[in-house]
Amino acid sequence: MSKEFFEAVKMLEAEKGIPSDYLFEKISSAIVVAAKHDYNGKDIVHCDIDEEKQKIKVYVTKNVVDEIEDPDTDLTLEQAQAIRKSAKVGKTIDIPLKTKDFGRIVAQTAKHVIRQGIREAERGQMLQEFKSKNQELVSAKIERIDPITGNATLEIGKNHTVLPKTEQVPGEVLTEGNTVKVFIVDVKEGGKGPKIMISRTHPGLVRRLFEQEVPEIYDGTIEIKSVSREAGSRTKIAVYSKDEDVDPVGACIGPRGQRVSNIVDVLGGEKIDIVKYSEDTAQFVGAALAPSDVCSVEIIDEIAKTCKATVPDDQLSLAIGNKGQNVRLAVRLTGWNIDIKPESGFFEGQE
CA-CA distance, 59 to 63, in Å (whole number)? Predict the structure, then answer.
């Protein structure tokens, strides 16, 4: 095979990032498959590719026999010695083949197998790349917005995947050519390649943003206990410090509020409540109902995880939130069902 062949494989390795060893293995298999057609599919064809010497050796191994039983696999001693004088009955002989003699149909078969091998390698490489980023935050370039569905095609590294409209932040406008951060929710192997689930609405996106922005979270001093989110509107995040001298809420807010402000900017203005986690359920629930004040929290049922929070009358609507959003997020954050009542015991409109 020509020098250009090996240079082409090297070029494929550079462009696609596929190891040349893998490509040569697939090419070798393709040549064997193609050549076996001339021997009725018998498993007697071999192919050795020497990248260093830039040589390809294709040969058929046949048995040297006194009497031929299978013309595809056997040679008489006379036939074998015409090829190699040292041939002996009971031994085998390797007969070199010329790849140019395989014919057009065989060459097309080989080309198809090679292309298939390259596609498989690309899919495998893509799968491994995304698996290494599973549950992580990545930057992606917006290549195209489907005008009908609103789905966005994103470029992540050398690969492409789709951000469904349902996983985009409500009200957010994505622009082709811009870069956005997305959270890789899951990676699965599919028949036509890896299936990548990405999201801009997943709570994991907020978790990873805080890990990037707050050094104390990254180094393990502060732990994120839970996150509840209604994308585009509001997020609550519960944080805990293993060091008594470190204020987890203050660290997440940052000097002059810069850290949380940076995260809010990435999320397009989404409100963020940073809550101090406590092993004391009453304290944790009270903190989770921020920004409202809470007078007291009474545990109703430990097993069913139900409690009652009492708030000042003028804080009732704030504690419940618009369409119940604040208490709904607090429930998800704490894992407790929260019943809210005003301090007076009377709801607005009651006597």
Answer: 13
This prediction's pTM: 0.66
3 state SS for 265-319: HHCCCCEEEEEECCCCHHHHHHHHCCCCCCCEEEEEECCCCEEEEEECHHHHHHH
pLDDT tens string 255-301: 999 999 999 998 888 999 999 999 999 999 999 999 999 999 999 99
297 beta partners: 309
CA atoms within 13 A on the CB side of 40: 4
Which residues fall within 8 angstroms of residue 78, CB to CB, at 6 or more apart? none
Q: Write the CB contacts of 32 (distance below 8 Å, at least 6 apart in sequence).
A: 45, 46, 47, 58
CA dihedral 184, 207, 330, 314 (to 10 degrees): -120
Classify the phi-psi angles of 152: left when phi > 0, otherwise alpha if psi is within -120 to 50, otherwise beta: beta
> Residue 18: how many CA atoms within 13 Å on its side-chain side?
22
